[in-house]
Structures are given as structure tokens and as C-alpha cells.
């Protein structure tokens, strides 16, 4: 796309919707767009031209009949492409995305043998790395019917330690060398909140939840340069997929420092709504309260991420009743009620926002019980976030709206988990599972994300799934529990304006109406008309943040 | 001082010394000053008017005969006051200054009885504080001839724990309650790098160097709001005394976050050259290298502060030969040579600057031995800093220049330590003690600071002492070891342009020549003519940083 400096005076400016006082001397007009955005009430607005000022803030939306402003300095012809707001991912792990991209990826393997081949290949390519670190395996996807074992890594790499995280991050798979370095034996006890898988008393190589750290703590930490590289990689991946903002769920001080370093050197493009990895990190990063918006609305510590349970795949999700496929297990409870209440109070008294991970119905009940107490002191306007809110007891569901809570959900988890969830829960508990429409109809707020790198960060897959509850293969036809499908506008809102609101970013980004940052995508498809199967395959041709083109199809990145 | 908006066109501008390209639309002229600054070569420059631009950067210095620029927007008549660059303190502890100001101050007590009265008074005024924390006591000043004891605090406060730091920060004095909380008994062993003072095997209440932490770790840490309050207090104290920049010696991550919070909310006025409190803090704060200059040249992590020994008063300074007044002691060695070399290499390989605390002649030898190895790899242009460099073996002194080292010294220590140093060292080792002129004549760089809050942060006392080696009472008449006195210009350089160079701030601040930030003081005395006794009493009537008035006599603070 060429930039054309306007030299001749244009016709009289259409000043409808103009923000008064905006400097006129370096405005940019993106013209000839099929413009689509939502306003703060979720109403669809269409436009054909967008003007932003020198600060990258939208000043005007133009309809076809409007005269174009005469005082713009730059004009770009979008040639009829569709312009939509940049996508906001309400739940992701930015550094995780970057580190995943730089580590062994097993997420595409469909069998144990494929995984073993990938491990062997990676070990050969990176022969000087002292540890081989990977993630993304899923024994369910392999149809293995059991966890893999240390010996199955040893068969391809035995001379160096290998540690491989499960797709959901709630289990790790180690080889014998790694267990030797970590001094894991049959006598090693299960840690609180975790479990060492054993066969005949001997550790098999699988470490569940907090047990992962028994081996993980021996992995040398990444150096700051590695972290910065991972951040740059993550940002590149997100911008290429049209994600212009992400809620970072579990920011450590090291993560925060990488974001600040990027901001300090002008390399922070992505907008980050940060949730600290626990209370200590929250205080270390934020001090007496949330940070201001930094770097022109690109970084803010909003609050804290707390964990109440594990994940469904590894049976760490905390259920009210036993697992259908493991009658002696109800999952893992991470915090006592009093611990949770103390943490919630500690955060809330200093205006930190809460983002509480709860997957199982019991964990969701626990956070709702906690919120019932919180609202007594702090009221309902604290944008209490429940992360995942995957399995809700239908009797608990109305309590979300009652306490002013936001369900921060990830549509793609539904398609990934579907058959596993059926096994784990049995038919009776599926009513409140991944229940997007029920959440909306209860009057609660809904924000959508990806949980990347657990799933792909691609938000268009998420929108498509939200509309269909069908996976990439169109399965199951007509959608799984199709009554929980939501409309295209609702899905778009949950990935834009409502995700902004959930992250205290309303009025800053998430919409293209005047006063918001000019964060937008140019795409080939009209997202209001395209069938879900086409939406799923959308690839932005350009990504803009704050009026700056930060990615363009065909380039890995471009200013 | 009134601000007068220039409305009428002035005569043709004197554009000598003008920086080209500076925006003309919001310039400020401070006229009718007795302007004094040093250029980068240390030459004195005089001027009668100073112009700075909208960014707070000096664009012109005007002599009396020069026409005044016609295009300034603001003009201030300084009514003949002397204008000098803001003072740069090359060695201080910013948060320490703030916390000291908020805690019990025993530094003015001249007897144990006075100290006991002050403790009792503070305990009564702050009856709800769980711990009473203070510092500044000096048994030498009290003429006590011994350390004080726990019982001597118990006599005035026995119901709450009390912990009081010695003036040099190298010893702590606890009451019995504090020792009880810390479970200190006769069986508690001396920690490495520290000592519990004992009488008949029983701890007396005095904890030397690393032993301070045996009690100190039980003191509840300050909250972030306390930290921010302490920073604001420190900044206020420094600006009021004409200190516009300080090298912060031993910045923790918590300190750094307070500075950033101040910067993020626009409340950071002071310029901070930061040296992290050890290698871990250096990596946590700086990551892969020093930070950029942040907040318009107000904050940068330059490098790391390392400690090689303790202080002379508590006999922690590491000497080549035994203490004259303690023939079995040579002081404390904090690091083995290999530890030091590892730390030096770790910092230098990532371009972090080294600032190594060395007080005793043996510690100074150790750092110089280390530098001899460092220059093999990293060369001499790394601005290696030796902090204090108090007691140098005269045979080691030439090695400073040989390795390109900077002696970062604190003139007032000389007058505070004089009689104690004579006792500790005896007459033979005093030749290389506080040897400012010898350092300069050896060709090494000299930067001056205060070590506040160990001493007053007032830089004018430092300049006066540097010129006289006499204390506040003019003792000893003619100066202690007067051959080490330096000139007024040399002292001024060490508190301005050379302190900037030592902190990688050259060309940014430390001089009022064009291109530098407009950091200046208005004072009543002509510092080039005033006798040292008058210099000692200088109080700025105004302090400006970056073209903004940040302090004015009569106001505690003003924008």
C-alpha cells in the first residue's frame, strides 16, 4: 500500500464525529474501506473512511456520502478492504507464546511416535543446548489412553535432560536424565497441589501440577536477552494474527521488566493488560496500586492472577463431584477459602483487579463464594474476572451477574476439550460447560481470549468457534451443545470492546469510534457476512496499532 | 520571582553559542545572573543570561554585551543572583535519606544520655509503631570509649523492639526485646562477614556488619506506599540543598520501582544515576545491560555497587596491617578475589559499570588487583569507580590512573573521621588517607559525593571541606593534612561536570553550556569569591531541573 502525500486542497471536510481540539497538522486518512466497528453499547457502526491524528487517535469516521477532510497530511487508499478493530485477547501468556515459539513444539504431533521423532530432530538441531525443553504434547490427541513415560523419551534422547510440558501446562514429561538431575526416586513424596505419576511405586516420568516444579526448578532460567527475544517473537506472532492487545495472565517481575525494556526502547507495539503472577509479584510490580497506563496506553498492571485449580485434561480441575472417569478424584484445590479471601482482600484494598483461574465447578463455586464476601466491602464495580469459568454448576451461573463478575473464556478450549470433557464429566455436568450464551443471558459480561500458547492465538478461529461450536473439521456438525452458540456480533464484542472493558481499557482501545486509539486490521473478508468457515481462515493483510502499521502480509514485521 | 511574558519585540538576538535547530517557540531567558559554570575541560565560564528551550535544554549563554534574543516567550530577572549548575552528588543512598528523615535520628546526639532521651521521646510520639527504628548514633562522638549496650535502651524502651543503626550503617544497636524476637543468645554464632559484640559470652546488643541482619530481618519491611513517601521526602531534602542529581549507591528492585513510579506519574524531578545493590539486582533491574536514560535524562541504571569491606569506625575496613588501636584486627574481607573477579566480569561483559566500595588500604588493593585483570579484557575506558577510596597505600595510588579508575570520594568523611582515623591507623598510614589532591595529581578522575544519609547531603559543606580540610568549627586550623586540599574549581568540578562523567551523564547535565539540561541553582553568594566558611552556609534560593523550578526558598517544594 502506497502512502500519498496530499498536496492539493480537498473538498470541505466532513466534520461529523470530529473530536474537537485534535491537532490538524499530521492527520492521516485511510479511505475506501469497508469499515466495521462496535460502539460502547455493542452496536455495529459502518464507515468508509477513518481519520486519525498525530497521536494515533481516531478523530473521525466517514461515511460514503461525507466529504473527505481537506487538511490531512497522509492519505491511504485501502482499495475496499474491510477494516475492523484490532483483536483483543482477554487471556493469554505473552512470554509463554514467545518461549514456546523458541522451544520444541509438540502440539502438532498426532502420535507418540511423531513426538519421539520431533524430540530426536530437535535434539540434533540444537546439539549445544544443555536441556531440551518443549511443550504441547497431548496424550488424548495421540489416542494413547495413558500418559507417556520417561523411557519413551530415553529411547530417543538419553544423554541430556529433557522436560516437556503438556498442552495445558498442567503436567510435565521428563526423561530419566532429567529425573536423575532432580534426584527423583520412588521415595520422593508428592508435593502439595501436585502428583508424581507412579507405576509399581516408581515415578513414570509424568509430573502433575505443582509436581512439575520438582524437575522444572533444575532447568537453568532464561537470561534477560532470552526473555527479550521471546517477547519480540511473541509480539511478532500476535501482530501477524491481528491481535493488537492481550491480557497477560500471570506476569512475573522478569516478564514485566521485558515489557518495560521494550517500552523504554520504543519497541513495544502490542498493548498489554497485565495481571501479576500472584500477590508478591503484584506488589513488586505495582507497589501501592495498579500502574498508570504507560507508553501511550501500551502497558498497565491491572491486577493479579490467582489460581484455584488445575486443568481438566490432567484432572487437576476441582470438581464438586468425582471425575466420571476417575471416581476417586475430584481434582486439586490450590487455596483454602481463607487464603483466597485474604488474597482477594489484599488486592482489592489497593484497587488491584482480580483475575481468578477457576475451571472446575467446585473452583468456580469457591471464587463466587469469595466474591459474595468481597462485594460486601468493595461493591460490584470491581470487574471481578473469573478466568476460564469452564465448568459451571448451573445453579452457580446466575451468581456471576449478581456479583458483577466477568467470565473470561476461551472459545477454542471448547472444541479442543469436547470429547475429553465428556469423558471427565459425564453427560450430567455438561450443561454449564463452556456456556457462553448462558453467561450472556444471565446478564454477566463475557470476554474472549485464546489462552495462547495453550491454544493458537488466532482470534478468528475463536470467533468462528464461538458462532458454531464446531472444530476445524466442522465437527460435530451443527455444533456441540449448539444452544450455547453466540452471534457474530457478540463474539466480535467479546474479542474487542468487551475485552477492553474487562481490562480497564475502555475509551482507549477496542473500538474505532473517535477518541480511541487507531488499532485496526485490514482484511479481505467482510466479517459481517463471511461464513464461520471463512472467518476461521482470516489472515490480516495489515495490522495497525496507534496509527502505525506494525505488520503487513508478506513481511514478518514492518513499522 | 515573577514571570514576565515578553510581548514587545526585543533587539536582535545574540546567537553566539546557539544550538541550531532548537525550537524557538517556547524559549525561556533567565537574565541578569552572575552565571558560573565549567565546560567539559573544567574551564570556568561566566555569563549574565541563560536561554533554554521548551525541552529544558540550554540553548544559549549570554554575556553582558550580547543582545538578548527577541523570540523568547518567558523572561525572568534573577536580579543579580549567582547561577551555578545543579550539584551532582556522586555517592548517596536516596531511599536511605528518605527513610532516615522518617525515622528516629540520633545523628545530632552528643552523649549517650541525649540519645536515650531522644529514643524515649520518639517512642512516646509514635506509640503505635510496632518497631522503633533509628540510626545515626556514633559512640565516638559521644566520647563513650565503648559501644553502647542493650540495657541502655531497655532503660527507656523495654516493651517494644528497638533497632538503631550506627552513623556509618556498619553496626546496629538493639534492645533486649529486639534480641528476644530475633532469638539472639550467647549461643548464636557470628555470621560470615559480621560479629556479635559479647561481654562474658553474652551478646551486648551491638551487631557488626552482616550480623546486623540477625536482628534486622525481623523488622517488617516497608510497604510500597512507605517507600514512595520516603522517596518523595528524599527528593525534597536534596532539591532544597541544591542537589539536582545523585548516584544512588545500592539500588534494590524495590527502590527502582519507587523511582519508576515517580517517573511514571511525572513526580521524578531529581536525576538518578543508579548502581544496583549487587549482581542479582543488576540483572533484575537492567536485564541484558544498562537501561536507557529514562524520563528525559532523570533515571538510568548505570551498573552495580559491590562491597569489599566495612567502615573504619566499626573496624570493618579491611587493612593491610592491623588496626593501630586493635592489634588483632585487620577488618572484614567481604569477597574472595575469585568472587570479586567473577562479579566484575559478569557486570562488565554486559557493559554494566562497576562501583566498588573499598575503604581500607587492603580493600583498595583488592579492587585495583581486580581492575588490573579487567583491563586486559575490557580496556581502560569503562569508568571503573572505586567508592570511598578512603585509605590508599601510597604505592597503590598511581594504579588508579593506570587502570582508568575514578575515585568517588566524600569530602565530609574526612572531617568526621579525622580523629578516629588517627587512632585506627596510627600516623604512618595517613599519607594516603582522604588524599584528594594526590588522586588528582596522579592523573585519576575524582568525583565527589556525600554518602548521605551517613553524612549531610549538603554539597556546599563538601566543597568547603574540599578546599580547607577544616570542620564546621574551623578545626584543625589550616586543615588536616593540608597538602591534600584542592582548589575551589577542582571541588566544583568534582561536584558537577566530573560527577556527571563518572555517571555516564556527560553532555546531558553537569554543565550549563548549550546542549545540557538547564539544571541550575540561584544563590546569593558568588561561589568563585566567597570564603570557604561562607560557601559552607550556602542555601539555594531556587533549584531548577530541566528548565523547571523545582524548589524555592520559603516553600517546601514547588513546581
TrEMBL record, chains A, B:
List UniProt keywords, sorted A-Z: Signal
Molecular-function annotations in GO: hydrolase activity, acting on carbon-nitrogen (but not peptide) bonds
One Pfam family named in its UniProt record = Amidohydro_3
Q: Return the protein name.
A: Amidohydrolase family protein
Which CDD domains does this entry report, sorted A to Z?
Answer: YtcJ_like
Every copy of the Amidohydrolase domain together lies at 77-550
Q: Does the keyword Glycosyltransferase apply?
A: no
| UniProt cross-references to PANTHER family, sorted A to Z | IMIDAZOLONEPROPIONASE, PROTEIN LONG AFTER FAR-RED 3
Give yes or no: UniProt keyword Signal: yes
For this UniProt entry, which residues form the secretion signal? 1-26
Gene3D superfamilies referenced in this protein's UniProt entry, alphabetically = 3.10.310.70, Metal-dependent hydrolases, Urease, subunit C, domain 1
Source organism of the structure? Alterisphingorhabdus coralli
Amino acid at each position: 500500500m502506497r502512502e500519498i502525500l496530499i498536496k492539493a486542497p480537498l473538498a470541505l471536510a466532513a466534520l461529523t464525529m470530529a473530536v474537537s481540539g485534535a491537532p490538524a497538522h499530521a492527520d492521516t486518512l485511510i479511505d475506501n474501506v469497508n469499515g466495521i466497528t462496535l460502539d460502547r453499547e455493542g452496536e455495529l457502526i459502518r464507515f468508509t473512511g477513518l481519520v486519525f491524528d498525530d497521536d494515533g487517535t481516531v478523530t473521525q469516521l466517514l461515511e460514503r456520502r461525507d466529504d473527505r477532510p481537506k487538511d490531512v497530511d497522509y492519505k491511504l487508499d485501502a482499495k475496499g478492504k474491510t477494516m475492523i478493530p484490532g483483536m483483543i485477547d482477554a487471556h493469554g501468556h505473552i512470554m509463554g507464546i514467545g518461549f514456546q515459539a523458541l522451544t520444541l513444539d509438540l502440539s502438532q504431533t498426532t502420535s507418540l511416535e511423531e513426538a519421539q521423532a520431533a524430540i530426536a530432530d530437535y535434539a540434533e538441531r540444537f546439539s549445544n543446548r544443555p536441556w531440551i525443553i518443549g511443550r504441547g504434547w497431548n496424550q488424548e490427541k495421540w489416542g494413547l489412553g495413558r500418559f507417556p513415560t520417561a523411557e519413551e523419551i530415553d529411547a530417543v534422547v538419553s544423554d541430556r535432560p529433557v522436560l516437556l510440558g503438556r498442552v495445558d501446562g498442567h503436567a510435565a514429561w521428563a526423561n530419566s536424565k532429567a529425573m536423575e538431575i532432580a534426584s527423583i526416586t520412588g521415595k520422593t513424596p508428592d508435593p502439595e497441589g501436585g502428583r508424581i505419576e507412579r507405576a509399581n511405586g516408581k515415578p513414570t516420568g509424568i509430573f502433575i501440577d505443582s509436581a512439575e516444579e520438582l524437575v522444572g526448578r533444575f532447568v537453568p532460567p532464561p537470561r534477560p536477552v532470552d526473555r527479550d527475544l521471546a517477547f519480540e517473537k511473541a509480539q511478532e506472532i500476535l501482530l501477524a494474527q491481528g491481535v493488537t492487545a492481550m491480557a497477560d495472565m500471570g506476569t512475573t517481575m522478569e516478564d514485566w521488566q521485558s515489557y518495560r525494556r521494550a517500552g523504554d526502547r520504543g519497541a513495544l507495539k502490542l498493548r498489554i493488560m497485565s495481571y501479576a503472577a500472584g500477590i508478591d509479584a503484584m506488589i513488586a510490580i505495582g507497589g501501592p496500586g495498579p500502574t498508570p497506563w504507560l507508553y501511550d496506553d501500551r502497558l498497565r498492571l491491572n491486577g493479579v492472577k490467582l489460581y484455584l485449580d488445575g486443568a481438566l485434561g490432567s484432572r487437576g480441575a476441582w470438581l464438586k463431584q468425582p471425575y466420571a472417569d476417575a471416581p476417586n478424584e475430584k481434582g486439586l484445590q490450590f487455596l483454602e477459602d481463607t487464603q483466597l479471601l485474604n488474597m482477594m482482600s489484599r488486592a482489592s484494598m489497593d484497587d488491584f483487579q482480580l483475575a481468578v483461574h477457576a475451571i472446575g465447578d467446585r473452583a468456580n463455586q469457591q471464587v463466587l463464594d469469595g466474591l459474595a464476601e468481597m462485594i460486601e466491602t468493595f461493591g460490584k464495580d470491581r470487574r471481578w474476572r473469573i478466568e476460564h469459568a469452564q465448568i459451571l454448576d448451573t445453579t452457580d451461573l446466575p451468581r456471576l451477574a449478581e456479583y458483577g463478575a466477568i467470565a473470561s473464556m476461551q472459545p477454542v478450549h471448547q472444541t479442543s476439550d469436547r470429547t475429553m470433557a465428556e469423558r471427565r464429566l459425564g453427560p450430567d455436568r455438561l450443561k454449564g460447560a463452556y456456556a457462553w450464551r448462558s453467561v450472556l443471558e444471565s446478564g454477566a459480561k463475557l470476554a474472549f481470549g485464546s489462552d495462547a500458547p495453550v491454544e493458537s492465538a488466532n482470534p478468528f478461529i475463536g470467533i468462528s468457534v464461538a458462532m458454531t461450536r464446531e472444530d476445524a473439521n466442522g465437527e460435530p456438525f451443527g455444533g456441540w451443545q449448539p444452544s450455547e452458540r453466540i452471534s457474530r456480533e457478540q463474539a466480535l464484542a467479546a474479542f474487542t470492546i468487551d475485552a477492553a472493558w474487562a481490562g480497564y481499557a475502555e475509551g482507549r482501545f477496542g473500538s474505532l469510534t473517535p477518541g480511541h486509539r487507531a488499532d485496526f486490521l485490514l482484511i479481505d473478508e467482510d466479517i459481517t457476512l463471511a461464513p464461520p468457515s471463512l472467518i476461521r481462515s482470516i489472515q490480516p493483510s495489515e495490522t495497525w496499532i496507534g496509527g502505525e502499521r506494525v505488520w503487513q502480509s508478506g513481511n514478518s514485521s514492518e513499522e
